Amino acid sequence: MSAGLTPDLRDPAALARLFAPAAGEKAVGLAVSGGPDSLALLLLAARWAAALDHSPALFVYSLDHGLRPEAGAEVAMVLEVAQSQGLPARGLAWTGPKPETGLQEAARRARYSLIGEAMRADGANLLLTAHHRADQAETVLMRLAHGSGIEGLKAMTPLAMVEGLRIFRPLLDVEPAALAALVAEAGLTPAQDPSNDDTGYERVRWRRLLPALAEQGLDSAALSRFASRMAEADAALAQMAEAAFAELVKLDGFGAASLPRAALDGLSPAIGRRVLGRVLNIVGGRQKPRALGQVERLYDQIVADGLPRATTLLGAVVRLKGESLTISREPGRALPEDQNLPPHRGLIWDERFRITNMSDATGLVAGATDFMPRHRLEDFLGFKVTTPAEAIRTAPLVRDEEGGVLALGGWSFDERVKVELLID
């Protein structure tokens, strides 16, 4: 991301650079609402693909959220524009009752879910969205106001996973005025969503402030450049945290972790918080991977005062045991129910273990160990078990139809079953 002058959208070489990450895809989806930004995305993507010898298939998706009476006509307009560009398009609809609170977030989830279903039907596994430089600037300002750390301040990245979909934002370094001009030149009249002017939304309030900030030199290009630098800093910190994690953290077969408290204290806070956050994410079943504030408070308590007693956070139990910090899965209702393990199929258990039935055997079931005396565990494993009791209770146990134990935690006692602890 250059975060300087907006690219020349008429230049085929500039378009090739903007869309390059999508060039190797077999099929690509375009999220098009009918506003000026997404219509420009449609036009630019069609122009880019037409210049390639072997371009991905492009599919246009437009969604009626059922929240405004004019939305149906806007979807019809998008389908007509897509047809004029020779692109197949689907009109989608979010039907059924709508929540009284959290409507924006619910609409967002519905949008990605419905588009994701359509993409799978079309064989597309990358979705292009029309987020631009001003969207990036607004995101930076909101996250600054909310006290985000470096990871948050890098704002939107060109490539990301959102609601299980691979997302590519090719226009993040393009000014919205350039997109609007492109649409006007094409003789199109874009849809205007009144929510874009509703100051009840935080993003709209920041959008209203952008011109005043630009007069002081803090324009969308400067904020986008700031996000790029935060992304570079985030990558550097992530690299150092990865090395610290590999050196300090020990994960056992029950999915519990331990690390020396003194070593954690010796890390810089920026690295220490990341290491602690990653451990909580792995051990706790990946409940809230971006709960930075909670992780920071726990880290500060550990470093400043230690932990006088066990504490729970993000699905994990944290305690000081001697000179080490131990972290294990919190028992409770969040653990999965028993799950069948069909032949030659696998499942992700509690977002912590991948369990695979490598055989033709039927009747295999994976569930929580819940309770097993340590002496029986030690008979199975052949060594003394010192892991916390909750780690044993929350480890997966695989049984056959006769009740025989085939695997426990990360250990398999039968070649028909493979178990892996997920650490990424």
What this model shows, in words?
There is one protein chain. By secondary structure, the chain is of the alpha+beta class. It is 41% helix and 19% strand. It is built from 14 helices and 19 strands. It has a six-stranded mixed beta sheet, with helices on both faces. A five-stranded antiparallel beta sheet has the order 7-8-11-10-9. A hairpin with a 5-residue loop joins strand 16 and strand 17.
List keywords for this structure.
41% helix; 19 strands; five-stranded antiparallel sheet; 424 residues; six-stranded mixed sheet; single chain; alpha+beta; globular
Q: Could you provide a short overview of the structure?
A:
The chain is of the alpha+beta class. Helices cover 41% and strands 19% of the residues.
